[in-house]
Amino acid sequence: MTRLLADRVEVKYFRSLSQLKASHGGCQLLISDLNVSDSKAENTARFLLDYCEHTPVIVQSTEEDLPGQLEQQSAGRIQAAEKGGQGHRFTEAIEHFMAQFDQKVL
User: Cα separation of 73 and 86, whole Å?
Assistant: First the structure.
């Protein structure tokens, strides 16, 4: 991820939902697993629905239905992708974000 995006955006890593909340810093894109160390998937999902109001989100999870439900509820601000950052949905989500970012920069 750092190699892919580092020349265009700052990459930060958070190990928990509380760490992200405490950062108080905005970001250009959030890539999140629903199952973080300090939050159940449903709680993380609620947080991401609020967070995506100002930041696009790519969500990954082993949960079957929840990522798709978030995608539908977010009016295009959350994209569901395969866990582990590999797969066509993850690649498409990153490419979509980068295209949007490039349009804003121009």
Answer: 24
- Model-wide pTM > 0.85: no
CA–CA distance, 58 with 82 (Å, rounded to integer):
10
In the 8-state DSSP scheme, what is residue 16? S
Q: What are phi and psi of 36, to 5 degrees?
A: -90, 165
How far the first Cα of the chain sits from its last, in Å, is: 23
* Average pLDDT score over residue span 39-68: 89
Name the region of 8 (left: φ>0; alpha: ψ -120 to 50; beta: rest).
alpha
Burial of 79 (0-12, 13-18, 19+ CB in 10 A): buried
CA distances from 70 to 11, 55, 103 (A): 23, 14, 25
Residues in the chain: 106
